[in-house]
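Marked as duplicate of an earlier ticket. Keeping the data here for the record.
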Amino acid sequence: MRTETIIYADIIGLFTHAMNHDDVESMLCLWDPEGEWEVMATGEKFSGLDEIRQLVTRSVATRNHRSGERLLPFNVFKNEEETKFCWEYVHKGVVTDKWPAALGNHTVGTKFDLPIALMCDISNGKIVKVREYFDLLTLTKAGHPLHLYS
């Protein structure tokens, strides 16, 4: 596992690789130990590497990627100061038996397409915060607050 500070030019490529390969350990190497991931659609916050590991591990378990299903980044950019980057993508996946019950009756094998935008803050070559935005109604019906991963 890489523990040294990552130069900024590498971080977007390493992030993309980790996300596209469901590589939890490589993802965690990119994070500051005190980092925070906030799922804006549900209000869930995951602070520190242990909670972020739980979030990423649970997320990976909820779906699989067969032929044609995967993360499809289409708008990736950074600011001039190299303190922020945006990773916008469509997540194409197939529901597994670990799919959050709060999302309703999605049978195993159901395909889904979910547009997501991740706004990422960088400090000292590490990710310190991710704000994850998506339209929760893409996956469920209106009615009550949901918690997907906590």
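See parent ticket for discussion. Strands lie at 31-39, 44-47, 63-64, 71-78, 84-95, 111-123, 126-134.
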